[in-house]
Amino acid sequence: MSAIARKVALGLLTRMKGGTIRVEENGREIGTFGTAGSDLHATLRIHDPRTWRALIGGSAGAGRAYMDGAWDSDDLVTLVRIGARDMPAFDRLRERLGPALGPVQRTMWRARSNTRARTRERIASHYDLGNDFFSLWLDPTLSYSAALFPEPGATLAEAQEAKVDRAFSRLELGPDDHLLEIGTGWGYLAARAARVYGCRVTTTTVSQAQHRFATELMRREGLGDRVTVLLEDYRDLRGRYDKLISIEMIEAVGWEHLGLFMERCSDLLTRDGAMLMQAIVFPDDVYEVEKASIGFINENIFPGGTIPSLEAIGREAGERTDLRLSALEDLTPHYAETLRQWREAFAAAEADLERLGYDERFRRMWTMYLAYCEAGFLERRIRDVQALWAKPAFEGALDLPRISAWPQQHRALAVPA
Q1: CATH number of the domain enclosing 142
Q2: Is the sign of the CA dihedral 203, 206, 207, 211 positive or negative?
């Protein structure tokens, strides 16, 4: 079986056009594949013959094999980028197979549906890994979402502050507002909203570890009278709020609940309110094939997670709410840089992670996850946006100037106009 898989995998490598891959097997070079003269070059080192079968099994199979140490690369991010460039051909194949796989996919979707209990369990499996774990490689704000680098040389903490302030500017947040945050994280955004902008904040999470941490943060910073930290599912929230913010939480909702999420957010806003949503999204043209797949990330990192598309979110908002998309900004290049810094910090913390009990397989899983996402954003296979959804009576300015482009040498982080 390994010999057949090897032949198939090498045949696929021969047809690759996204870059150049040098392949070694047990220390011996067996060939260089892809497009000569490409700007992307990486080496794939095979240590176990079972890797060949894993490589033709999609990102889930390849990721598991990497976790097991069956293969390595001199540049994991570049290797994944090359694969991402060749994904359109596989997308077309998956589209053709879609009708035949429909019944299986519907059964799979029902089994993965994010009920309240399952949501809590899945969030716990990721965010309750331990505050010590995340603090080793996130910046001091413990922000776990795309930053926004205001200028070359800005630190990650400064970029996270700029991201939050950009969102608050979109909302025109002020001291008279009551802000609802869905997805507390470790509390940085809620604390900054109360401390700097003077508003009242209600923030909710379903992670017990994050709830404890954020509650203690508010107490320590003397914000307990202005910030309420809830341990509640978004479906159970009540009340009316002037402004609502949700930073990269919608990915945990599940595609089948997108409409319900947008409906609940709309119902929680006053008639002149607005919501700022920062979201990871698939391009519209690959959403349907991606939502039907179980890949490396939603198998190992975010069980039950589903990256939506802007079209899917907008369709549900249009059918079930009176929210309108009033402003949109692309932060995709900034997420690639955020991930690069996380990945390097994670690698530098290897000894501390091992000391805390995170074994090599776990560390390789997270190394793959961070590299995989960085590559996806660099190639725009996935994107990150800030979107302002406004109620009909919202009177705020419905657009802000784009982030100015940086000098040519920093164009990788410049947000396109």
Answers
A1: 3.40.50.150
A2: positive
Sheet of 324-330, strand order:
227-230, 200-204, 178-182, 241-247, 269-281, 383-390, 324-330
pLDDT > 80? residue 109: no
Phi, psi of 367 (to 5 degrees): -60, -45
Whether 105 has a pLDDT exceeding 90, the answer reads: no
Q: Residue 269: helix, strand or coil by DSSP?
A: strand
Look over the chain and give the mean of its residue pLDDT values, rounded to a whole number.
Answer: 88
Same domain, 44 and 137: no
90 lies in some domain: no
Q: How many domains does the chain have?
A: 2
91 inside domain: no
Domain boundary, last residue among 85, 108, 130: 85
Residues identified as active-site: 373
Range(s) of the domain holding residue 72: 2-85
- Whether 381 and 339 share a structural domain: yes
Q: Tell me, what's the pLDDT at 342?
A: 99
- Is there a single domain that holds both residue 68 and residue 140? no
Please tell me the predicted confidence (pLDDT) of residue 128.
57
In a 3-state reduction of DSSP, which class is residue 397? coil
Cβ neighbours for 70, distance < 8 A, ≥ 6 positions apart: 46, 47, 48, 50, 51, 54
Q: Residue 377: which of 172, 39, 77 has the closest Cα? A: 77
Q: Summarize the confidence of residues 211-220 as an average pLDDT.
A: 97
Last residue of a domain, one of 32, 67, 85: 85
**What's phi and psi for 306, nearest 5 deg?**
-140, 120
Q: Is pTM, for the whole model, over 0.85?
A: yes
Q: Which residues pair with 276 in a beta bridge?
A: 245, 388
Measured CA to CA, the distance from residue 294 to residue 275 in angstroms comes to 30
